Amino acid sequence: MFIQTESTPNPATLKFLPGQNVLEVGTADFPTVEAAEKSPMAKRIFATGNVSGVFFGLDFITVTKDDAVEWDHIKPAILGAIMEHYQSGQPVMSDDHAPASGHAEHSGEDAEIVGQIKELLDTRVRPAVAQDGGDITFHGFDRGIVYLHMQGACAGCPSSTLTLKMGIENLLRHYIPEVVEVRPVAA
């Protein structure tokens, strides 16, 4: 097994490409070691030490490190943990925990607008953000303000505010006049 790595716009996060599917559908975010209890692979990655977050996409894993350590010191252990996991035959996720589809549910008078927002996120934004090792999902819409949840490499990325304001906000405002602003939400 050959695992490639790619840097992300977030210097604290590295993208690992195992060359095979990580998840069949959706994404899975593990911002803490406690959250990793749902995934044998995430637990194994956290166990290497100095890891502060793990995120799974369809064909990639992003790992966020503690600020106090350099990638050169922990990357070999993380590569080993990923390889070990695939050789173990264990599932990526525990049987009783399915990956999330991402977007929050929203109904009511704004349902049509929210549908348009979700479609633009799915077709234009999420594929680009996945290339950088992260995900952005719809969290809510209230009086023209779109609330988005940033995961993986996007969470805590120095350029995330710029991505939200200059990229996503401009895109949504262009196609959906009812959108006036985009704001991030915490997990």
Notes on the structure:
The protein has helices spanning 40-46, 71-88, 111-131, 160-175; strands spanning 4-7, 13-17, 28-30, 51-56, 61-65, 134-142, 145-152, 181-185. It is α+β, with helices and mostly antiparallel strands. Helix 4 links the parallel strand 7 and strand 8 (181-185). The longest helix has 21 residues, at 111-131.
Key features of this structure:
187 residues, five-stranded antiparallel sheet, 24% strand, alpha+beta, single chain, 4 helices
Q: What is the gist of this entry?
A:
With 187 residues, the chain is an alpha+beta fold.
Our count of helices gives 4
Report how far apart the termini are: 33 Å
Structural class, by secondary structure, is alpha+beta
Major β-sheet profile: 5 strands, antiparallel
Unreliable sequence segments: none
Order of helices and strands: EEEHEEHHEEHE
Strand order of the biggest β-sheet = 1-2-5-4-3
